[in-house]
Amino acid sequence: MFYFFLISGFALWADGLSQETNTVTNIINIVFALSLLAVFILYPIGYKNDDPSFKVPIYIALTLVFTVLTYRGYKLIQDWKIIFFPIFSVGVNLSFVSILENYTDPNNPDFAYNALFHILHDLAGTEAGVAIFTWLVYQKGILQTQKNTSDETQLSESKI
Asked: What is d(CA 145, CA 136) in angstroms, rounded to the nearest whole number?
């Protein structure tokens, strides 16, 4: 169920960044809903049959959600640095996941690295990407507020 909640959380975030509701937005929401349904059905089947190929649709759904989220984030903040969000949340995350897969055997003397790389995939990957996204939105808000305050101050001073 982890992937269900992960995808739904990011999909809701992406939907919240939508600036208007139109046909494309509705189609994307339907695709998000179908993706959640697919995850709900396929993940338990793959887990029960010990078949990791059932995760492929999950990764496709995550890619779609992150693409929409990055695009809508860019439309909101108009800053090229938004590209660091998927680089960290997807790229760095999956890099650490692929490394930790080498340390899954509890009999391996280096098994402790599995925990280290698992923590790093969360912190240096997903969380770093979310922090970057959050900082960019916050920075845009602060800069806009400072600009508005500065404009109001200049307007007030010009009236004096």
From this structure: 14
Going by C-beta distance under 8 Å and a sequence separation of 6 or more, which residues neighbour residue 18? 25, 72
Print pLDDT tens along the chain (160 aa): 677 787 888 888 888 888 888 898 889 889 888 888 888 888 889 889 988 888 888 888 888 888 999 999 999 899 999 999 999 988 888 888 888 878 788 888 888 888 888 888 888 888 898 999 999 988 988 877 777 776 666 666 666 6
Token duo for residue 7: 């995808």
Q: What is the CB neighbour count within 10 angstroms for residue 36? A: 18
Longest distance between any two alpha carbons in the chain, whole Å: 78
Q: What is the residue type of 27?
A: I
Nearest to 3 by CA among 58, 85, 63, 68: 58
Report the C-alpha gap between 61 and 92 in whole angstroms: 18
